[in-house]
Fold:
Amino acid sequence: MTEPEIPGDAGAAPAAEPAPARSTEATDDTVAEEAKAEVGVGPWEGDLPQGGHWDPDLLADGDRRNVVDKYRYWKHEAIVADLDSKRHSFHIAIENWQHDMNIGTVVRSANAFLAKEVHIIGRRRWNRRGAMVTDRYQHIRHHPTVEDFVAWAQGEGLAIIGIDIFPDSVPLETYELPKDCVLVFGQEGPGLTPEVHEAAVATLSIEQFGSTRSINAASAAAIAMHAWIRRHVFNQLPG
Structure:
């Protein structure tokens, strides 16, 4: 079969094939970039809402913060006050002797699961990049030494629960987590110090099934926090 001639273009080469459709991947990338540019909400439309928790600057300019929709346009202090009214009774602690890069991510997870406080044991300075600004909404307390931390926890009546792999560790999956407790995580690499291990009423391990010897401290923290949530928010018994 011969190619049909294009009117007014006799003898010309066949028309070029149409350009291929953009790949799904490229489309997804474009959508992702557009979503990134549109994060949050713009200026408030319509009559301004009434109440002391609204931020007039955010209402006028828009709210691009990393907060859930409920808190859009709220003042920062109003958000913290609302979170404080319903925080859970567990605390998170992490040792910071070598400037651990996981702490920011631990703080972000602690905010997501609404921990009472996050405790930094050791060096005061820590890398906030992984927190994604959630540290502004999360109470963080510093303890220069393990002894200071242990004295504080005991004074508050909190059970110290270590999360690490030791010969005496028991599975997190079957352990009855106390409601009032502080979950403690060690420095990435060396893990919990002997001092924290000794002070803990129990040390828990997370069951693994692959070839690696351990999981990232930030990942372990999120798993342990969610285990507490399942037990004390959803009343799921360990099995």
Observations:
- The chain is about 30% helix and 15% strand.
- The chain has a mean pLDDT of 87.
- The CA atoms of residues 120 and 142 lie 5 Å apart.
- The helical segments are 24-37, 56-61, 76-84, 103-112, 146-155, 194-199, 217-232.
